[in-house]
Structures are given as structure tokens and as C-alpha cells.
Amino acid sequence: MSERSADLERIEAALALARDVLREFVPGAVEGRVKEVGGLVTAADLAVDAALARFLPQAGEGWLSEETRDDPDRLARRRVWIVDPIDGTRHFFDGLPEWSVSIGLVEAGRAVAGGVMLPGRDLTIVGAEGLGVRANGERVGVRRNVSLARAEILVSRSEHERGSWERYRGAPFSVRPHGSIAAKLALVAAGLADATWTLEPRHEWDVAAGVGLVGAGGGEAWLPDGGGVRFNLPRPILPGLFAAPPDLAGELRAWLAGPRAPSPARG
Fold first, then answer.
1. pTM for this entry
2. What are the pLDDT digits (tens) for 36-54?
3. In CATH, what class is 148-257?
4. Is the CATH number of domain 3-140 3.80.30.20?
5. DSSP of 184-227, one letter per residue?
């Protein structure tokens, strides 16, 4: 078995473990509290985090999770697990199905494998470079032959509710709000959505798994300045993120650079 195949097996086993842990909790019927650094956390987040922290890292591997105090030792590690035990905790707390469990593996700053479980859709998407992507065991990949004029972009539900996407009214594409950016990226990787794009900064644990999946599925992910995505940074926050199939990515980049695209800096 190749190293990458072993990584993928470990991700699948970890997601199964998370599913078992989550059976003890009912979405919409859990208590939550606001963390000192902001954001909501529940006992389910902490339980999944603890289980994955015990299961995933092996000798010499680093760990970065939303619910674990950051250890700078990870910066010296070539292989780092980057995890969000529940991406979309607010949706989980409210009983909405738009949340996920996100597990990414990074090597030398690159997302090389990932897995995202969407319990609300009974859907698990896993993949790794060189091995492709599977959704509930079926081989999948990013959509092909999608033009910008027909594309539907999955966008942050909170960004949409705040009116941040009004500046793109009249754009050649349509937008659809959806929670959990990890889930949105996974859906793009599996060919279940055209593209996704966030207007606001995101933590590495929000997107590492999804970026790994998009790459494994044949798609592209890039930063607002057009550069590639790197992980395991001292300050693990990205300024924003785009993900799309190659042809659509080219069209979207060109449109954003053109005179008709509104500046993301304007509200």
C-alpha cells in the first residue's frame, strides 16, 4: 500500500470515528458557549476534537485544530493534520444540516489529502493527490464544461445574509448560500457544485481538507491575489479563497480582472 493510500484509509477511519462520537449528540439540542476568541463551541466540537487528536497524528506529525490550543511545534513538522471537528458549529447548534467534519493532511505546506463528512446529507467525500476523490465510495471529480454564464457559486450563508454579495448583483453567475466552507469545497471537488468563493478571511482548519479534495478532484484553489494556497503558517489564516474546475477558474479569474467586476473592497 502506498503512503497516500494509507493516509486516505486513516482519514476514512477518522471520519467513521467522528460519526460514532457524534451519535451521542443531537443537532439543535446541544448547549453551546461563546469562546474567548469568539465563535461558538459545543460539547460535540470538543468530543470530536479529542477523539481525532488521539487517533490521527503519528510520530513526527503535527496537529492544528480549531478546538486545540495551537502548538508552534507544528511549524517544524513536514506532515501536519489540520482539522475542524465541526465546521459550521452555529448550524449544528441551530439544528440546520449545513455543517461538516473536516480533516486535512498537509505536507510541506501543501494540502495533499482530505475528508469531509456531511451528516445532514449522509455524504462522505474523501480524496488524495494521485488517488482522486470518492463520494460515498463512488469515484467523482469536479464538473466539466461549465461556463461562467451558467455557473452557480456556493457562498457563505453569513456573508449573504449580511448583504456582502449584493455588489455582485447582475454578474454573469448566480450565487447560492450554504453553510460550512469545508462542505462547499467538498461539494465542488465531488462535482456536486460548480464553484465556491469566500469574501472574508478563513482559518486554515476551515479549508485545508476542502482544498486537498479540490486538487485531488481535478480543480483549482487560489487566493484573492491569484496565488496558490499554502498551509501550516505561523498565523493560520488565509485572506479569502476561490475554488473551481479549471475552465471555470480561468473564466472567473478573467472576469474578476476585468472592468465590469466590482472591487471586493467595496460594500
1. 0.96
2. 777 899 999 999 999 999 9
3. alpha beta
4. no
5. HHHHHHTTSSSEEEESS-EEHHHHHHHHHHHHHTT-EEE-TTSP
